[in-house]
């Protein structure tokens, strides 16, 4: 392969930062089916804020990055990177539809000697057993004869401005030893901290999925502890601080597990394990526990309101934040919605305020009308306030100014507010 021309399929939270980074060394075309998204990117703005306008405009103007919805624009590429979502359906079963569609797209344009690398999080075997046969079928080419493959799992952390894509140490792999070396070389050429070359594509797939499954299990343990200590009247945060004084204690905190990674990826391994006759009890229990934390938080708030003599029925309740994590606009699979839904069983007057979230997108995804992006409109209006997301903006306000009565309730899901300002926390 004399020169590398890269096509990145899928320009979301993973694909766009990767395309921007690759464009510093190679000719890159980003492909996405969403025309609105592509138009916005080519105008120099990323609405996810993963790539700054300055970096994006530099990539377009000075490095020739092109974003397109046209298949013909990626036909002459020779290194295809697929970075599309891998969601679950309503029954938490893996939904490979985006991945299958992206594989068919590559199959339409791939040529002899080309390489396709998958970045999407999957269970071991998906790349070679599900995706590449589609590329073969659509292209008419033979895998590992006419074209080759690799797998390099994404490690993007939405909203994280410290562990950006160029600083992430990435796992790489290839369908032959030679291709593994080549894929590793391409990624290494743009990464500050290099790569780890896995022994096979399946090993690379497995390594990614256990990263998120491990975090899910660890957070579930902390959430279980929070439930126990709350029932005992002990401050969980104080317990964690005390335990963390031991040198080998792993300091984690309880919380809501949403987003498109930790709350989704374990289901892929859970299903695949069952195919092999293994019942993954710990991962399954962790998923159930973490999925129920939104309802738990809502009921804790209701209990506090009752204890303080605040009438719950028809009360005014404010939730601060709806994104799945702090300081980013990502609302995918946010568990704040579970808090909202439970509270709506008691009062219709539940308001969500989040300066990071797009009001129209929240309305479209969840049917919730946020109403305002002006915190001044909310002062002195509520009987209870729940800090659900630790946006920097929320740490700077006196949340009790949002209450309309002295005995109103403030509940801190993220344990970031001063103890004298709150009535309870997770």
What report would you give on this structure?
This protein is of the alpha/beta class and 426 residues long. Helices cover 38% and strands 12% of the residues. The protein has 14 helices and 13 strands. The protein has helices at 15-22, 35-42, 53-62, 97-109, 126-139, 177-188, 201-232, 236-243, 265-275, 281-291, 293-307, 336-343, 359-366, 392-395, and strands spanning 5-9, 27-31, 66-68, 79-82, 115-118, 148-151, 170-172, 195-197, 317-320, 350-353, 384-387, 409-412, 424-425. Strands 3-2-1-4-5-6 form a six-stranded parallel beta sheet, sandwiched between helices. Strand 11 (384-387), helix 14 and strand 12 form a beta-alpha-beta unit. Helix 7 (201-232) crosses helix 9 (265-275). It is globular. The mean pLDDT is 95.
Radius of gyration from CA coordinates: 23 Å
Unreliable sequence segments: none
Question: What's the order of the H and E elements?
Answer: EHEHHEEHEHEEHEHHHHHEHEHEHEE
The oligomeric state is single chain
Ends apart, CA distance between termini: 55 Å
Query: Per DSSP, what share of the residues sits in E-state strands of 2 or more residues?
Result: 5-15%
Instruction: Classify the helix fraction into a percent range.
Output: 25-40%
